[in-house]
Every structure is written in C-alpha cells, then in structure tokens.
Amino acid sequence: MSPAMIGYLSIGLLVVLMALRMPVAFAMMAAGLFGISIFSGWNVAVSTFVSETWSTATYYELVVIPLFVLMGNLAGAAGLSRDLYAGANALVGNMRGGLAQATVVGCTGFAALSGSSVASAVTLGKVALPEMKRYGYDQRLSAGTVAAGGTLGILIPPSTGFVLYAILTQESIGRLFLAGVLPGLMLAGLFMLAILVISYVRPDFCPPGRKFTGREKLKAMLRGGPVLGIIVLTIGGIYGGVFTPVEAAGVGAGLTFAVALTRREFSWRKGVAAVQDTLYTTVMIYLVIIGANVFGPLISLAQIPQGIVELIEAANLGAPALLIVILGVFIFLGMFLDGFAMMVLLLPIVLPIVQASGIPELLGLAPGSSELTIWFGVVMVVVLEMALISPPVGMNVFVVKNVARDMSMRDIYTGIVPFWVMMLVALALLVIFPAIALYLPTSMMG
Amino acid sequence: MKWLDRAAVAMAFVAGAALLLVAAVTLADVGMRYLFLRPLLSAPDILQVTMPVVVMLALPLATRADSHIAVDLFASLGSARVNAIRDALIKVALAGLSLVLAWGCWERSGEAALFGEATNMVALPFAPIFAIMTIGCAANAVLLVAEAAFHLAGLALPPAPQLAPSPDEENS
After folding, report:
1. pLDDT tens, B95-148?
2. Which of A131, A223, A309, B81 is the 20 to 30 Å CA partner of B62?
3. pLDDT of residue B170
4. Which residue is closest to A54 within chain B, CA to CA?
5. Residues of B in contact with A43 (CB under 8 A)
6. B168: number of Cβ within 10 Å
7. Could you report the per-residue pLDDT of A386-428, keeping only the tens digit for each?
C-alpha cells in the first residue's frame, strides 16, 4: 500500500470516528495508531502514542495554558468581570449604544485576563445581559454583542489559541501574543463601529443608558484598578522581558487569587469550581495536542500536503484565489468543527501549502519565514473566532443561550450577523495589511 | 457507578492540588529570583513531573463531565436505541484506547525505574509519574466501560459528580 493511500485511509477513519461522535482528540489518536501501525507495526505505534503523550504532558511551555485558564476562571469567580464592566460602562456608557459598547470594552479587558473565549462570554454575559435587558436593549443585539465580544478572548493575549498554534508550529508564544494585540484591538473597534451603526439605523434597539457623574466615573474606574494592574503586570511583564509566558501566567494566577481573597463574593466553593473548570479545559486541550502529535506526523509521512500542492499547481490557481479558497474552506469547516479541532486537524496540511504557494509573495513575506507563520496564526485565530459564533455549532452561542435561557437560538444567530461581517472585514484587512499583525512582534522582538 | 464517581472525584482532587502546586511553584520561582536573587532551580523539574499528574488524574472526571471536544453534527442517528448502541460502542473504543495508553505507560514505568530515568536538575524520578498516568488511564477505561453498560441497558447516565457543589446551587 502506498504511503498516500495509508494517509487517506487514516483520514477516512478519522472522519468516520468523528462523525460517530468520538471525541476529536481520541479520534486522532485512533487514526494515528492505525496509520503508524500499518507503516511501522503495532509496537512502534504504541511506543509513539506513549512518547507523544509524555512529551506533551511534560512540555514546559504548555504550562501557560492551565495557568492562564486558572487566572481567567478565578477572575470570573471573584467577580472581577463585574468591575471591568462597571469601569467600561463609566468610560463609554454615554456613547450611542453605550451598554453594548461597554460590553465590548469589558470583553476586551477580560480577554487580557483570560485566554478562553468561552470563559469571557460566560463571565461577561452574566453581568452584561441582565443589564442590557433592564435598559430595554434589543435581545438580538445584546446576545450578538456578548457572543462576539467573548471571542476576543482567544485573539487578545493571553490566548489559548495562540499557545496551541505556537506548540504546533514551534513558533514563539511571546511573538504570537504580541501579534494578537493590534488585530484584537482592531476587531474590538470594528465591533463598536457595528454597534454605532446599529444605534443610528435602529435607535430603538439600544435606548440611552444612565449618565455618570465625574465622581461615579472615577469610582468605577478605581474599582477596575486591580484588574488593570494584573493585566499590566502579566502581559506587560512578558513584553518587558521581566517574565517568560509561563512565569507571567503563574504570577497572574497568583495575583488574581490574592485579589479574589479580598472579595466578599468569592468563596472556597467558587474557588474549587474555578479549579474544576480549569482541569476540564486543561485535559481537553492537552488531549487534543496529544492527538495532533500522534496523527500529525502520519500526514507528513504519507506526504499528503505535497500531493495537495501538486494538485493546486496543476489547477494553476493564482495566490489570491488560493488564499480565498483556503479561508473559505476554514470558514465553512468552522461552522461544523470546533475551532481547536480544526486547527490541529488542518494546520499540518494547510501551512505547508501556504508556504509552498505564491501567498507569501502576495503578502510581501519570505516563504518559510517566521513572519509568515505568525501572520497565518493570527488569521487562523480570527477564523477560529468566527467558528465560535457560526451556526450550527458555535460554542459561544450555546454559552449565551445558557446564560439567557429565554432567548431563541434564531434570535442569537440573527444578532451575531453584524459582528460576523466585521470579522470578515478584519480578515480582509489582515490580508491587505499584514503589518497589522506583524508590526508589534517585529518592532519589539525583532 | 457511585464508587467509580467517588474515585474520579478523589483523583481530580489530587489533580487540582497538583495544579495549584504548579501555580505556587511558578510564583515562588519568580519571587525567589526577583526578591532574593535565588531562583528555584527545581521549578522546571517540578512542573515537568506535575503536569502529567494533573492531566491524567483529571481525565476520568473530565470524561464523566463529557468535556472533550466532539463533533455534534450527527448527534442523533435515528432511534434512541440506535444512538445508545452507537454511544456504547464509541465508549468501548475509547476505553480500549485508554487501556492501550495505560499499558504503554505501565511498561515505560518499568523501563524508567530500570534505567533510573529522572529530571535534569534535581533528579525527580519518572517511574512513579508513569505509574500515576497508568492509574489515570486505567480508571478512565473502567469508567467508560461502566458508561457503555448504562447506554446498553437503556439507562440514563447519572449526572457527573462535582468537586464542590456549583456556586449556583450554593447561592440558591
């Protein structure tokens, strides 16, 4: 049997197992075991399985995931998201669509505390949705704002999406975190622009909120002080060269725990629940990476990317068309696959294709350069964000539904449309101006 | 199932404690370095051997909570009986994979003990860590087989146990 045939058989098995609802991580392990055992025998396959599990579980850099997730979960349990929202409301609440604008600003702030989009949507959703309901905001707009704003969690550092991408591509976590800052702020700005436009077209969707006195504004912003302090110390510490990402995550988790202890609403039960949620996320991400590490090498061994590159060359597809096809396939698959799963499944196939195609030339980047890998990482994470709010399996939509049970899925998806369009605009801007992603990492880290 | 759930919760408690140890050691390392100019040289070694404990001992409870990523496109294949058989078969297959990993970890535990494999700086031994991974994977396999039996018997799975009552319950 040819290597390519073994590869395609393994991919077929993977698809069948996933369709039968086997968890993606285990499906990749099973397909990887199957393929490697045909290539090299059962003992080698098992040995690869065990060694990949060990090397993933003991990989030092990966510790940032549980620590940053713990930090975000503790922040949610301690009600820090409430402080962020109050501060953001005092800051931008007077704008048109003020409460929705404040939700986006709060999500942006929380994204800098948490690497998880789901955690951002849950914590901000619990605070912002009831408030917007109280002021008579259109439910679709409220839901769309929370679901889309929450996705900023995986673009603005710390980001579990970037850590996963960094591990899969052997790229620097710090550089990727930096690369996410400007696109994250840009996307937040685009979301706010969408709300502004809606507020002009349909003023009844977002009635004016309350006005804040100067004293109230100051008080609300001071309450957000500890949160800002943690963000500046951890994220700033990475870029200032004071901490490695792992150390920053440890310091961030420790500081968040210390602040949580000073809050009346924090209890040991909430703390245990935060640890439990962190364990679930940790297991989920580690297993996906183990699965990818067992399955990924098989893809290379079977020379599948090379085969696809040859097909593309034969089709004589230009670089712009190829890029549109790749992004289109990602966005389409994102409707059905979990974002993380999509990343680990497609990255080993698509990144070599991008590198071997005319896309680097189109962007003005060197093929195989670190800049190209980082730019593609940012694009991939934006697509992941779109996947989080795309029907039928958008995770953040389920989160919003869980918080606002009286809302229909149809209404939530309708509310998401303007924000989804803004994500598409962000993608286009990233393609036209790759410097949006690359300026900070190249200027600050070389 | 009750006893299996208790075992899963007990293992997850150890995993949670190990996670807090990871955070504490990282924090202590930074503190020692900047406050006393004496970094904790054992920190990377401790993290290296603690993370497999976190992941593998939390695995059974994560399985019970169904927190793994799955594609729900074909969540329903037809009648409830067909879905139950599908779920049971998948869980048996997952149990098989867990057992393969448990067996492989057990073998590696023996090899690590035989060759004295340990971390670089402070020589923390790998053999016990592989043994703990074996326990986590084996427990996961047993739990999955029990869940498969529930599906085949047409019974609803009991709700996943929690490390602590949820804050919502606490507030109510």
Report:
1. 999 999 999 999 999 999 999 999 998 999 999 999 999 999 999 999 999 999
2. B81
3. 47
4. B52
5. none
6. 8
7. 888 887 667 788 778 777 777 887 888 899 999 999 999 999 9
- With H, G, I as helix, E, B as strand and everything else as coil, classify residue B20: helix
10 Å CB burial of residue B78 (0-12, 13-18, 19+) is: exposed
Q: Do A282 and B19 touch (CB under 8 A)?
A: yes
- Comparing alpha-carbon positions, the chain A residue that sits nearest to B44 is A60
First to last CA, chain A: 46
Domain with A367, as residue range(s), is 3-445
Please give the Cα distance from A119 to A62 (Å, whole number): 19
Asked if A284 reaches chain B (Cβ–Cβ under 8 Å), the answer is yes
- C-beta atoms of B62 and A283 within 8 A: yes
| Cβ-based neighbours of B153, under 8 Å, separated by 6 or more | none
User: Is-contact A28 B75, C-beta < 8 A?
Assistant: no
Question: Domain count of chain A?
Answer: 1
Q: Which residues of A touch B59 (CB under 8 A)?
A: 283, 287
C-alpha–C-alpha distance, residues A230 and A157, integer Å = 13
The confidence score (pLDDT) of residue B83 equals: 87
Compute how many other C-beta atoms are within 10 angstroms of the C-beta atom of residue A434: 22
B44 min Cα distance to partner chain A (Å): 7
Residue A442 CB-density burial (10 A; 0-12 exposed, 13-18 middle, 19+ buried)? middle
pLDDT at B166 over 70: no
User: Would you call A9 an interface residue with chain B, using a CB distance cutoff of 8 Å?
Assistant: no
Say whether residue A405 is in contact with chain B using an 8 A CB cutoff: no
